[in-house]
Amino acid sequence: ARAPGYARAHSALAMALGHRIRKATLADAAPDAFENACAAVKAAAERALGLDPADIEAKLALLSLKPVTETWAAQERLLTEALAANPTDSALLWYRMRWLVGAGRFREGERVAALGYELNPLSPIWMAARGSFLMINGDMPAADELLKQAWMNEPHHLFVWYARWAFLGVTRQFEEAWRLLSSAPASYGDIGAAKAWLIAMERPDDAEAIAAYIVETNIFRESDYSQFPQGMSGLATVGQVDAVFECAELRISLTQPERLWSMWHANGYGPGTESLLNPWFLVLHADPRFLPLCHRLGLCAGWVETGHWPDFITLSPNRAALEARVRKLAVS
Known about the structure:
The protein is built from 22 helices and no strands. The chain is an all-alpha fold.
């Protein structure tokens, strides 16, 4: 007999198992890690669908095993449907928030982060998420308070630690940033590029410091593919536009397309679109290389199919021209 309630347990397990992709995408992962991670997600999702063929989260888990570059619109449809049935599910809200920033819809992502924090006010992870959006919007005092509180409660969680450390660097609180970097979680890995970024932020007019950061980022990204999004953000904050595009190209060339994971499983280890589409980096969005890159990452087709546009287009005085160009790229 079908047991939809029990099926939900299997589908939730399938979504959770997807986080094994994080380790499977590291450069030093075991040769069979990727295939094993896929198999575990697939098995749990198929068990759920065997019990309840209508289970949305199981379908979502299976869809997440396909390249994100081909499934932006399909992922949104299933996420929307899953949340309609479970509107306060914290895991689904997290996936939705991650998906929205990956698609460049930061204002919508901020609303989801605010809801997640409202539902989970003691969660350091939701504190850090909410604080990160406050930082993007320029509310630095409120961001500082939340990010500090999150880090004090969960100092060894990678996302929480990184959100706090990046805030300190961006707001030029260098003494504290250096102190926090000295206690980076082991899961962060090599801190060479992080050190070089802080030096470059401290000395923005020092060409040698900038060049050294680019070198360190090249070394870091080639030894640990998981850090590409951070590398692209870091390069953009020090104004190295060409280096950002080089980093994005390398990200695509070094990683098999099927490993450009959905935003939630990726947990920052996906295609890096959340870095490229960050509202702070208008200089990237104005570059003639930007929209063709978005097209190659499947974003143009996703925007057209969903009918929902990223913030850099909806807020642009040239919105009509940008939409027309995206539509043309989407069918090319």
